[in-house]
Amino acid sequence: MLCETKWVRSATTKSPPPADQAPGPILHLRAGGVSLVLDVVGPYLPRVLHWGADLGQLDADHLAALDQAMRPRWTSNSPDDPLRLSVLPENSHAWPGTPGLAGHRDGRDFSTRFVVGGIGQSRLPDGTAVVTVAATDPAAALELGLTFEMSPRGLVRTRAELTNAGGGTYYLDGLALALPVPARAVELLDFGGHWGHERRAPQRHPFNQATYAREGRRGRTGLDASLLLIAGEAGFAFRRGQVWAAHTGWSGNHRLIAERQPSGERVLAGGELLMPGEVALGGGQKYVSPWVYFAHGEGLDDMSARFHHFVRTRPGRPAGPRAVVGNSWEAVYMDHSLARLIDLASAFAEVGVELFVLDDGWFRHRRSDTAGLGDWYVDPAVWPDGLHPLVDHVRGLGLEFGLWVEPEMVNLDSDLARAHPEWIMAAGHRLPPEFRHQQVLNLGIPEALAHVTERLDALIEEYRLTYLKWDHNRDLIEAGDQLTGRAGVHAQTEAVYGLWEYLKRRHPGLRIESCSSGGGRADLGILTLADRMWGSDCTDAHERQAIQRHTTLLVPPEMVGSHISADQNHQTQRRLSLPMRAVTAMFGDLGVEWDVTGLDAARRAELAAWIALYKDWRELLHTGDVVRTDHPDPALWVHGVVAADRSKALFALVPMATSMTSPPGEFRPDGLDPDKTYRVAPLAPPGRTGEGHIYQPPAWWSEGLTASGRVLMGRGLRAPELPPDSPALVSFTEQLA
Ligand code: DGJ
Fold first, then answer.
1. 518 lines ligand 1 (CB under 6 A)
2. Residue 13 — very low, low, confident or very high, per pLDDT cuts 50/70/90?
C-alpha cells in the first residue's frame, strides 16, 4: 500500500524531458496575450528579457535588439560587470538581493555559479509550451534542472530540481524562483486575513526599495495567506492597468517576495520555506521545488482569468454540473442521530440539494472536538448499524453521499494517540501546543501513512463514497519527527499530495474538497488535486463578498464552496435576507448549510426557487469569465460572469453599504461583446421580482431593454437604488437578428 502511494507521488514529480539542445537561442514563448522572452544563450542560467504583454511575432534580429535594449550598463560604485539577474538569482553574478539558492555542504559550497549544459523544448497535448534547462556547478557538485511552462492562456509557471552530485550531505536552506517586472510596476497588492476572514483585506503599498515578503510558516497555506503577490502600474484595478502576479503552489511553508534593488531591478519570487535541516540531500538525491506561478494581466481580472483557465483545464476535473452540496455542520454540528439526519437529508432534497455531506461528528469518541480524531471507525454508540441506514436513505432520495474526514490530525484523547504516541509530530521530547485540542499525525512515518490510507480506503469502499470533505484544522507547530528529531513539514506536505493522488487513482470519480478551518489550504499545490475548497468558516454573505472577491482572483469561483446558512449567521450574528445569502452563494459553488427542517413550506419553496435559479445559470457561472467591475461608488460592488462566447452574462449588483449618491451612478457590464446586441433584464426566481428590495428602480427595470454591448459597456446602465446587503441580479442575453 505504502509503496504504491510513494510510487504515485514520484511519478508526478518525474524529471523534465532531457535538455537536448546546446544553449544558444533567445526563446520567445507567446500565448493568450502574454510574451515570455527567455535568454538561454548561456553559459549561465536563463534570464528573462521580458515577461508581460504580447510583443507580437519577433524574428532573431528583433530578439537580439530586445536583448540589447535591456542590457544593463555599468554605474558608479557597482561591480565591473553589470549584475546578471537569472531566474534563480545568484550572488556569483553580483545579485545583492534574495538568493535563488541557499544551502551548503557542511558550511562549504554556499554559493553557486551554474553553467547551462543544454536546453529542451516541447509542447504538451493541451498546447502548453515547455522549456527545460539543465545546468551544473561542478565546483559545488550540484546539478540544476529548470522547467518553464506557458499555458495556452499565458500563465507561466516554473520549478527547479536540485541534485547533490557530490559526496557528503548538501543542506538546502531555501530555493526561490524569480521573474523580473518592469519599472512601471510601482505598486504592490496583497491580501490580509485570518480565521473567518480569509483574504478579506486588500493591502496596497508602493513598490519601495526593499524586500517585501509574505511568508507562511503554519505548515498549511494559512488562513492569513495572501495567495497572490501582485505588482502593477499606478492605480491598477480589476479592469485596468498592467499587473504581474506571483503565486507559490505549495501547501506547506512557503513565501512570496517582491524585491526592488537600488539598481532598478524589481522581481517577484516564490518558493518553499524550509525549516532548518529539513532537506538534507545525500549524494545523488534530488529536491523538487513547488511550481511558482506567474500571471500577467491587463487589469486583475485578466490576470485572474489565466489562473482560472489553468485550473479548469487540469486533467481529472469533474465533468458535468457541480452538485449542490447540503452540509450537516451548521445544521446539527456534532449532535448526530439517525432520525435527525434523515430529516435533514429529506429537507435538503426538497430544496434541491444533490450531494449530502455528513460533516464532523460521525466517528468513534467524537462527541466534541476534544476527542476522537484518528479513530476513523463509525461510532457504534451513535450508529449501531453503521452509516448504512443514512447512506441508503440519502441515495434513495437521489442524492450522492459524502463524508467529512481530517486524516492528518489526532486528538490525544483517541485510541490512535494512545496506541502510537510516537506518530505525533513534535520537535523532540515535548508535544507542541495543542490547537483545537489536536495534534498532527506524522504522515512522513510510513506506518502512520499506511494506517490512515487503509482507514480511508475501507470507508470509501464500504460506503461507496464519491466525495470527501478533507479538513485540516490546525497550524503545524514544531512539526518534526519525534524519533529522528528532524523537521517534517516538507515530508508531510508531500505525503498528503501522494495520499490524495493514490486515493483518486484507486477510487476513480472520487472528489475531494480541501478544507482547512475554512479556506486555510487554498494554493495550487493542493488545488490541482482538489475538486473544491471550502471558502471560509464564515458563512455570513456580507463578509463572504470580500472573501470570495479576492480568493477567486486565484481560484475559479465554481471551486469555492459557498453555502446558504441560517437567517441569523452563526459566526457574526448578522441577519441577512435570503436573496443576499443566495446571490452570494450563486457566485461560488453553491450549497446549503442550515437546518432547513425548521422552515415552513413557503420558506422551503423560496429557498428551492433560488436553488433552481442557480441551477439554470450554473453552467455559465462555472465556465465563464469573471468580471469584477471598478465601480466608482465603493458602496456598490458589481460583479458578474460572462460566457466564453459572450452570448450571455449574469451580473450581481451588491450594495455593501449605503451609497453617497442617490441613486448610485451607472454600472458598466464589462466583458460583453461590443458587437453583439443584448436583452437586458433583472433576474429573480420565478414569481418574485425582487422589487420589494429596491428603493428606486431605474426606468428600464420593469420592461428591460435591448442595447449593443458597445453602448452597455461604453456608457453603462443606471443602477437601482438598493438597501444595503440587498443585491439585484441582471441578465444579459444575446439577441440574434
Ligand atoms: C472546520 C470546517 O471549516 C467546518 O466547515 C467544519 O467542517 C468543522 N471544521 C468541523 O469540525
1. yes
2. very low
Domain boundary among 623, 654, 683: 623
- Please report the atom of ligand 1 found closest to the CA of residue 534: 3
CATH code where residue 542 lies: 3.20.20.70
**Amino acid (one-letter) located at 655:** P
Q: How far is CA 641 from CA 62, 651, 672, 725, 730, in A?
A: 39, 7, 10, 20, 11
Buried b (16+ CB within 10 A) or exposed e, 289-325: bbbbbbbbbbbbbbbbbbbbbbbeeeeeeeeeebbbb
* Res 501: pLDDT: 98
Give distance in angstroms: CA of 632 to centre of ligand 1. 37
- The answer to whether 563 and 539 have CB atoms below 8 angstroms apart is yes
Cβ proximity of 82 and 73 under 8 Å: yes
Mutation probe of ligand 1 site: the residue of 328, 329, 539 with most atoms within 8 A of C-beta: 329
Domain that holds residue 527: 325-623
What's the rounded mean pLDDT across residues 686-712? Answer: 83
Q: How far apart are CA 199 and CA 533, in angstroms?
A: 14
Give which of 315, 247, 229 is closest to 528, Cα–Cα: 315
**Hey, which residues are catalytic here?**
471, 537
Cα three-residue angle 590-592-598, rounded to 5 degrees: 155
Rounded to the nearest angstrom, the distance between the alpha carbon of 471 and the centre of ligand 1 is 7
Q: Please count the structural domains in the chain.
A: 3
Centroid of ligand 1 to alpha carbon of 329 (angstroms): 7
Closest ligand 1 atom, CA of 593?
Answer: 5
pLDDT tens digits for 404-415? 999 999 999 999
